[in-house]
Amino acid sequence: MKLTDAVTVKSIEVNLRARNKEDLFTEMVALLKRNPALEDVDESTVLKALNEREKTATTGVGKEVGIPHGKIMGLSGIVAAIGVSKRGIEYDSVDGLPVRFVVAMVAPPEEARNYLRVLAKVARLLSDPSFTELLVTASSPAEIHDRIRTMETAATAVTTTEEQRMLLFELRDPDYFDAVVEYFTEVGGTSATVLDARNVEGFLTKVPLFSDFSRVFTEGQTFGHIFLLSIDKGAVERFVAGLEEIVGDLAEEGRGIVVTFPLDYVKGMPSKLEF
């Protein structure tokens, strides 16, 4: 599902007035209500959904980004709104910074999987400096909506071949772990398997014979995770291009490695990625 399917031009505000979280939620609810999908839902119901979710943990995810969201029974689909604050809003964010970029979302409980994917898409979009710069400089909601549409459709095309591959991606830099998980979620890879993939040096200190060399081995990079999933052969290049948008050129040392293998035998229905 695309973000532009969830947010209308009328639900985008380029100059939020709120200065605190309480007023912001009220303002974002008003924006959400501009979507016809919420026409028959009371504002109090939408506000309650956002506040109930906020009680579990702050949705101020850091770097001036807030993504308040919640679930509402009976909705026909996911609904979103976008707001930009020029001055910043006190939000109790994980990094303590005020929030300037806000995407609010509500969805029916049965849309949990698509809901996760759109949340991940929003998080990745707001981590793109070129996009947040546009949010600050945009002169109209239509300009923001058009830019999102362009970004969502500009990706490398995927040609479905119905020929499955097993894809293995080794991530070597822990700084990118959260963003990679968000990417897997965004493209429908929530069923991917994640394995601890530290190299042998990471385990040598547990072997009595090599315990005297612990300082040598712990100085090296011991982090590593392997993501394992099945993927259509025609989607591999698009998927890898998305990974490189996060971790950089995989040809550079220390970025990671992607390997695919033919699936000679499969029994069952492996999940498929959806771009």
Contiguous low-pLDDT stretches (5 residues minimum) are: none
- The ordered string of helix (H) and strand (E) elements is EHHEEEEEHHHEHEHHEHE
Largest sheet: 6 strands, mixed
Q: What CATH architecture of the largest domain do you see?
A: 3-Layer(aba) Sandwich
The helical percent reads 25-40%
Total count of domains: 2
Overall pLDDT level: 87
Strand count: 10
How would you name the oligomeric state of the polypeptide chains in this document?
A: single chain
The end-to-end span amounts to: 8 Å
Q: What is the radius of gyration?
A: 21 Å
Q: How would the global form be characterised? A: globular
Structural category is alpha/beta
Q: Give the strand content.
A: 15-25%
What does this structure look like?
There is one protein chain. The chain has nine helices and ten strands. The mean pLDDT is 87. The termini are close together. The strands form two sheets. Strands 1, 2, 3, 4, 5 and 6 form a six-stranded mixed beta sheet that branches. A four-stranded antiparallel beta sheet has the order 8-9-7-10, with helices on one face. The chain is of the alpha/beta class.
Brief account:
The protein is an alpha/beta fold and 275 residues long. The protein is built from 9 helices and 10 strands.
